[in-house]
């Protein structure tokens, strides 16, 4: 039970901590100053949403996100959100591919070398089906989380930053809602693909609560660090590098590798949602669908990493608020839907 719960927890975190989050760009886009309460509220809403989605997925024993989506938004809106989820997975995976290119540029490699490298690894990963992704997550995520948390705490102590000095300033608390909504849609796609592999509701609770707590703690410490370097963020494609400039080249290399792994796990989760949805209609091997999908995505990576995040993420954060509302009020909606199916 515990091992399975942690397996799903790492899948959730791996889906969430991608190029946008791990680089600091996504956190700064939504939070920044006066956001402590917003981050605490995000952690609660995220745990609640993940638990609801996993419960529905477990109950339906789903193999792709469509049955889960029908329960959450109702049959009338399923077609609309089916398209939205697919486009979201497509565009955010493009962001991850672009993030890999941006990470390579930080070490003076060609942008296209970074994009091409992650594309090849993604195709190879899905030659082993879903189990390949789950195995990679269980290995990579503990190292990624410990590495990211360690550098953030090191920066906090070195700069003598106060963690709770601004709790009287919380005017940005509403940012919790679009930020949670942004991150929930891909989780519907990913968790909908593993419903038939969940064996108990205890696994659901471990994964849902654990992921919310971990992401809440890291988000708070990360955002607090970014506030101290707010003026420098404007000149960095990846804000994390503004923190890392204070440390040795070895730490920079280590964290850059971890950043790439964060990009990789989220790209893999995005591809998982896409290919399981497509495979429900076209019975081709997962790696073949992954290869075709990535080839189609490559031209869109030319828009650039920060540009994609600045425009795409806020739009989806607002559009997904209805899904978040349905998840928050799920017991009420579920009761009504059972009486009057949509």
Automatic annotation (TrEMBL):
Keywords: Membrane, Transmembrane, Transmembrane helix
Coiled coil stretches, renumbered: none
InterPro entries listed in its UniProt record: YkvI-like
Presence of the UniProt keyword Transmembrane in the record: yes
TM regions (residue ranges): 38-58, 79-100, 106-127, 139-157, 177-195, 204-222, 249-274, 286-305, 311-329
Protein known as: Membrane protein YkvI
Organism of derivation: Virgibacillus phasianinus
